[in-house]
Design a protein that fits this description.
The structure is a single chain. This protein is mainly alpha-helical. The chain has 2 domains: about 130 residues, no CATH class; about 200 residues, no CATH class. The protein is about 80% helix and about 0% strand. It is built from 13 helices and no strands. α2 packs across α3, α7 runs antiparallel to α11 and α10 runs parallel beside α11. The chain is elongated, with a radius of gyration of 27 Å.
Length: about 375
């Protein structure tokens, strides 16, 4: 029994393999594009709000990006000096803390070997320079990607009409209104995701500040802001949020150190089990179960970045299924679906009449106007 592939099938397989290879090679570029689109979806509504208040679009973009830069500088100014100071204090107190810990474990014969191990531990001493150099190179590369994303987002917002026109020129006109609806809904998803991030980060910052203020930690505000920012990162965020807060209490009472550790871990558990599904479920219109499954799937497939983009991707997939009327097994067509199809047909008829003879840029503006009015 022979198995033969047609030449067309072979070419299709080769083209698919080449596309996958090219996609893997261009992952950094794809990451820059995705981050830029997130920035556009996040900052775009603020620019449009200024436009509606009479501010010209270039000035509105300049105001919004300047405000973003000021916010980043302010957060860095509040957190970084305090964190550096805390790190310096911890390094100064490290020998005393190590001896105190070793003495505590040496009280029992069962833990005495652990006390000897703590006293003999002198920290990493080999290849420190090589590790620091590798970390610096990786950090510089990520900063370069971040800066590229910001400038690409700035270009996309400044030249929005021509970008939309170029995109619409590659799509048949019978799909222009639907494409406009998809883009507007994607912007809504990004906005909902960012709102969810802001809510969860703010709650983490407030909780950390109250807890550290009760523990009388000097840099409570800076550590709380850092915890709120770090809360954005899946998986590693828990270490970046809990770690500095606990370390800041080491110079005080051991009881407060344990209280802060248990309280922070308890809040992290509460956030992952209840707050995140509730907040993002409402913001992205996803069931709580789907939020948890999307985070797990994204983290399994793509690690930290996969978990970071899992929720908007899940919301986008659901939106596309609804937009293209992909019915799941067991679903039936309702009168509401027929009404939606009638409105979409009316919008398409209006678009064809108004865009007749217009260029792609003008046609794109008309399509977005119709889609925005019908939203």
């Amino acid at each position: 029994m022979r198995f033969e592939l047609a030449p067309r099938t072979i070419l299709l397989l080769l083209a698919t393999a080449f596309a996958v290879w090219l996609l893997i090679g261009l992952l950094p570029v794809l990451f820059v594009l995705v981050v830029a689109l997130f920035l556009v979806g996040t900052l775009g509504p603020f620019v449009e709000l200024l436009e509606r208040r009479g501010v010209k679009r270039p000035y509105g973009i300049a105001i919004v990006f300047t405000a973003l830069l000021a916010l980043v500088v302010a957060v860095g100014g509040v957190t970084l000096p305090s964190l550096v100071t805390q790190a310096g204090h911890l390094l100064e107190q490290a020998p005393g803390f190590k001896e105190k810990t070793a003495t505590f474990f040496a009280r029992s014969r069962f833990t005495a070997p652990l006390a000897d191990s703590i006293r003999n531990f002198h920290g990493p001493s080999k290849d420190v320079a090589a590790s620091a150099l590798a970390f610096s190179a990786g950090a510089a590369e990520r900063i370069g990607y971040a800066v590229s994303s910001v400038f690409l987002a700035l270009y996309l917002m400044i030249d929005r009409d021509r970008v939309r026109g170029g995109l619409f020129a590659m799509v048949p006109r019978r799909h222009h209104v639907r494409l406009s609806r998809v883009i507007l809904k994607l912007e809504e998803i990004v906005g909902g995701y960012i709102r969810g991030q802001l809510i969860t980060s703010a709650l983490m910052a407030v909780f950390t500040f109250v807890l550290l203020a009760l523990a009388r930690v000097e840099s409570a505000l800076a550590l709380a802001v850092f915890a709120g920012v770090a809360d954005v990162l899946p998986y590693v965020g828990v270490f970046l949020s809990v770690g500095p807060a606990v370390l800041a209490t080491l110079s005080g009472s051991v009881v407060w150190t344990l209280v802060v550790l248990v309280a922070m871990l308890g809040y992290e558990e509460l956030e992952s089990r209840y707050i995140v599904p509730k907040v993002y479920g409402n913001a992205l219109r996803l069931p709580s179960s789907m939020v948890i499954l999307a985070l797990l799937a994204g983290g399994t497939i793509g690690g930290i970045l996969g978990a970071l983009f899992a929720l908007p991707v899940a919301a986008a997939i659901r939106m596309l299924m609804e937009e293209f009327k992909l019915q799941l097994p067991g679903e039936a067509v309702t009168d509401a679906d027929d009404a939606v199809r009638a409105r979409e047909q009316h919008a398409q008829t209006e678009y064809e009449a108004r865009s007749d003879g217009k260029g792609s840029t003008e046609a794109a503006a008309i399509a977005f106007e119709i889609a925005d009015r019908a939203a």
